Amino acid sequence: MIRHLKEYALIHLGGMIYAFTWASIVASAKGIGGGASGLAMLLQYATGFPMGLGYLFINLVLIVLALAIVGRNFGIKTIWGIGSIALWLNIFSAIVPPNLLGLGDDKLLSAILAGVLSGIGVGLCLLQGGSTGGTDIVAMIINKFRRVSYGRVVMVGDFVIIGSSWFVYHLRPDVSNPLAMIIYGYVMVGVFSYTVDTILAGNKQSSQIMVFSRMYAEIADDITHRLHRGVTIFDGVGAYTGQNSKMLVVLCRKQETSNILRAIKEHDPDAFVSVGSVMGVYGKGFDNIEVRHKKSGKLKNEN
Fold first, then answer.
1. Quick check: pTM over 0.90?
2. Would you tell me which CATH number, out of the four given (3.40.50.880, 3.30.70.120, 3.40.50.300, 3.40.50.1260), belongs to the domain 206-278?
3. For a tag site, which of 1, 67, 87, 182 has the least CB within 10 Å?
């Protein structure tokens, strides 16, 4: 119960960060981005319709379409994430003053900062199994009829939405260079994507440590019983010396690497050690393997 409450609280926090970024930075810079948020921002620029309500309306339409086409293949966390963002967009749009962060007319800095902060917000949501709707739902609908990668759906959607702002910016007398605003929009999307990927990769990144030492038994025992990480022992033969040797292989979380290296050095300062970064370590003590069911499209844990 507590774990679920924590997940929903972090999704709500991520939605709040995301909404604050759009209301305080993107809107102040008269910028544009991708996804449902970018489309809602375009609607606000063109008609004055509040972005928060526009974001909510767009996602409600997408949810209804998804229910009709693919069934109930998205969870309550997606709806919770959409509701959180819509709520905070309306709140921040009403209370946040223009140029709150003092960025002034620095459009490039605004685009970079907006990309980082919005990426952090979405990354928080995704880490908890949530979603911000928009292109996620569009990708789900498209994949009902044709297998297209999520990244390609996002890329095409963002390209079209940001590119179409050319026509809206020409209607605004306060925007002197529409092309520059579009380029800044693409910069924001690029920084956003990189930030989200970094957050997700950092959460799953692990280390693979290979150890060659005559004290292999003591090292393996210490890692197993004191540091509580599994160790696999392989037989090897030195190609130059022809002598038999033992090799230890340890998979651990990135933050555990220094403790394991310290334990190795305590037993054998002359041990030969190789450390590599790996992603996608699945099994007990790591991540669960998730596969998509062919008929329903739902993700299932295989561990």
1. no
2. 3.30.70.120
3. 1
